[in-house]
Design goal:
The protein is mainly beta. Helix content is 3%, strand content 35%. The strands form 3 sheets. It has a 6-stranded antiparallel β-barrel with strand order 9-10-11-15-14-13. The chain has a 6-stranded antiparallel barrel with strand order 3-4-5-8-7-6. Strands 1-12 form a two-stranded antiparallel ribbon. The protein starts with 34 loop residues before the first strand and ends with a helix.
Length: 243
Amino acid sequence: MKKSIATAFVAAAVVATGVFAAAPASALAASPQVVGGTRAPATGWAVQLEASGGSIPSGYVSNCTGEQINASWVLTARHCIDGIGAMNVYHSNSTANRGTPAVVDRVSAAPTGDIALVHLRSSYALSTYAALDLGATAKSSGTGTIEGYGLRANAQQSDGLYQATVSLTGASRDAFNGSAQHVTGVTGASNHGDSGGPLLVNGVVVGVCSTGDSADPGANTTAGSNYALLAQSASWIRSTAGV
């Protein structure tokens, strides 16, 4: 059974096999994120998301990764917005010095799959935005790149955005039973708190991080995970964000 992030905040840990839960800031040591891999170059469009309020316990925040796709909209996973009261977006590549937040004024869940869009209250122009492939289907061969912020293997604090090469290993399902690309790590693997981070194939985003094959891959750089394919809600992404 896969469980969405909104049901896993208090424990800051996965309570069912396969769930990628974002960790409250006060419990980050319990929840590693990208395992292995290397420090990623700053893209500008790969952003940090911080949610609070709503069903998140008082005094806690929850962190995800997102992809800014134009001056007003950020793409992420649907389970990153479930039950939240407020959200900020940070454009810094540093997790220690994140800079001034861009405030989110509304969030929207896709009709299909673990996909969401968050809208910035004030436009935040970038020199480049995440390029999307809204027609990609699941592949059983080839490689891609995953990216994400947060803790690394064995509860080590990340200092910024990390990336890893993964193998594309067939079709699977995401946290909302939508279409997903299954991947297994080559140089590294995704883990808790990496939700909403991109899977890039040929440099273009085809999906966002949803769930993992195990509750806690630990330091296993070849662990498997599932990325919600953007194609399943392509028309909604175009009409909502105007891309």
